[in-house]
Amino acid sequence: MISSQFRLKIKPKALKVKVLSKEQSNKRISNILIYSKLLNLKSKFQGLIYVIHLNYFLLIMGSDGILKNKHKRRREFKKYKRKELDPKILKTLPNEIQKDPSLLKYWHSRYRLFKKFDQGIKLDKESWYSVTPEVISRMIAKRCTCDLIIDGFCGAGGNTIQFALTCKKVIAIDIDPKKIELARNNAEVYGVSDRIEFIIGDYYALVPTLKADVVFLSPPWGGPSYSKKKKFNIDDIMQSYGGGKYLYELTRQITTNIAFFLPRNIEDNQCISLAGQGNLAEIESNYLNNILNSKTLYYGDLIKTDSISISNE
Predict the structure, then answer these.
(1) Can you list the alpha helix ranges (DSSP code H) found in the chain?
(2) Name one GO cellular component term (predicted).
(3) Around Cβ 288, how many Cβ atoms within 10 Å?
């Protein structure tokens, strides 16, 4: 919060310098307005947004408008309620966030999802909390470099785009036409749509017709509530289709080179057992800002055998 001591230090002449500045980007202005509400600024200070930003917000926010201190950021978000948000501010946000302001925390991490977000990236409600952060998807793509890769559950295209940068061709599949539309748009933003074949369809039904060097699986985890579980069971994934074990076995009809993107609280023993007796599995923990974000399981030739020690005991 802005202290009374800080307010007293603001001089009227200084306030007039930037108050009507048009040089601030829409992105920065939007963030400042939102945080002014989160910090419960009094109405008489609403006209001083630019000055408050220059003198105060730079101390606690990064250049992308995200609070530097994660604990402080969480506290501010907890204070957030829809009834406190000015309708004028709400209109500056994407439609899906206007309808569900609980997505605001993902909006402030948008550049971690897509670095080119401001160049035309589009997402729907589910995509905001299911897209793989770009730094992680890029790392996975490097591990999965090949001629032809299949993204069985492409969603809004976060992983698909990165695969298109490391592989010669990508087949992106999703049962939801809206997701394919979003993925196609986002791929065009990154200039890689010509390397991707988009298919609207059920991955389970398409498996017998598919061929590829590598298959990447990132099925729905059941929404943000997955993180509340102490241990995530692999068969909680796509339960109506038979669970995660069945999905893995089905995919082996295409190739044994499989990358399986799973929650951070997945049980490691279950993942290892998928490989089968006598086969190897590699578990890669994905960290974002020193916090465990997720895990990627690698099977087949995707395993880095030179970093694995095998015991005969």
Answers:
(1) 4-9, 12-18, 26-38, 49-52, 58-60, 70-79, 87-90, 95-99, 104-107, 110-113, 125-130, 134-143, 158-166, 177-189, 203-206, 243-251, 268-274
(2) nucleolus
(3) 13
